[in-house]
Amino acid sequence: MSTPNVTTPSFIVRVPATSANIGPGFDVVGLSLSLHLTLHVTLDAEKSSSPTSGRPPPPVLTYSGEGASEVPLDPYKNLTTRVALYVLRCHDHPFFPPSLTHIHVDNEIPFGRGLGSSGAAVIAGVLLADALGSLRLSHERMLDFALMVERHPDNVTAALVGGFVGSYLRELDPVATEAAQVPLSEVLPEYPPDAGADWGLSPPVPPNGIGHYVRFNWSDSIKAVAIIPRFELSTAKAREVLPESYTRKDLVFNMQRLAVLTTALGQSPPDPELIYEAMKDRVHQPYRKLLIPGLPAVTSLLTPSSHPGLLGICLSGAGPTILALATHNFEKIAEAARDIFRTEGIEVDWKVLEIAEGSKVVYS
Ligand SMILES: Nc1ncnc2c1ncn2[C@@H]1O[C@H](COP(=O)(O)OP(=O)(O)O)[C@@H](O)[C@H]1O
Ligand SMILES: N[C@@H](CCOP(=O)(O)O)C(=O)O
Fold this sequence. Notes:
Strands 1, 2, 3, 4, 5, 6 and 11 form a seven-stranded mixed β-sheet that branches. β8 and β9 (322-326) form a beta hairpin. The longest helix has 17 residues, at 248-264. By secondary structure, this protein is α+β, with helices and mostly antiparallel strands. The protein has twelve helices and eleven strands. It has two domains: 11-212 and 356-363, Ribosomal Protein S5, domain 2, CATH 3.30.230.10; 220-353, Alpha-Beta Plaits, CATH 3.30.70. Helix content is 31%, strand content 23%. The protein binds adenosine-5'-diphosphate and the ligand N[C@@H](CCOP(=O)(O)O)C(=O)O. Ligand LJ64HWYM binds at residues 20-21, 26-27, 114-116, 118, 152, 154-155, 235, 238-239, 284, 317-318. The site of ligand LJ64HWYM has 17 residues, from β1, β2, α4 and α7.
């Protein structure tokens, strides 16, 4: 009898989606959600010795699910594998290990919708490098590497540790500040295609302890309804429309709400009146409405009185997804949001999501 040609992955990396900001917590809070980016990594022990000169061949990258038609499959161009190579190079592993033959990526997180697809790809790269290089990095050090690429901590922290998380970036001394702000093109350089070529400069190693976080309680009764418009909005573009400075009134408005929200979402039963008001924002959503037709209407017309079960509603990350937190009536809430988006000519998909565990590496 012939043996079926099935390769068993040597390990799996699994990273959740995230929703950042949750209204007033711009660049501060993140929530991990039950859509996942999964890497199935195959190692071949027989290929573990490096060639005497030049670089070993990179792994074959295959991809299924969200983003499959647009994601680069060249490991020197793909975000996850470039981040992995960056972390490996910072630890004196100049190339992908020769034993790394294949990575199959299966992705449930839609690209450019405000559900943390890039943060998940970055964390997956850090975990991949940690496993390939047996680096045994702490969560704190993993965050340092992730923050050299994705420079706001909300998505990457929640994706790494899971749950409802608040984080800040430490004020670094001038030398460390400069080290943490090197251009992204130096962290993730273009790699020359010629296998004999040198990579050039050594990679910028991150300073220690850039990001710090705390996990808040989350009431088990709260689920997240993600209402996902069928168009992409890059986070970079949605950050360009934000002002450099804010009035004291607007900052106090957000801080008052964020202080209440981080505790209110952990209380059982959750208080809809308190949460609805505490999820309002004046720092990013008002500026992003021009990029997301329907945003002001969806966040103002759906309320706990008009839609029992609804606790609060906001833009997810940089958008265009809308995040409704609710205890019941998920379908009614999502369909009402769909109707509002339709008046703007925008079609949506929606999903009811749970709060997810943090990232994992599972060995077979
Ligand atoms: N799994 C992935 N593998 C490779 N690149 C990815 C992956 N997920 C996201 N990206 C990259 O990140 C981009 C989206 O990032 P971004 O604009 O920050 O939106 P999001 O809100 O989804 O994080 C994609 O267009 C793609 O270039
Ligand atoms: N705080 C960031 C969060 C971006 O999240 P994403 O999921 O849209 O990448 C912002 O609001 O810009």
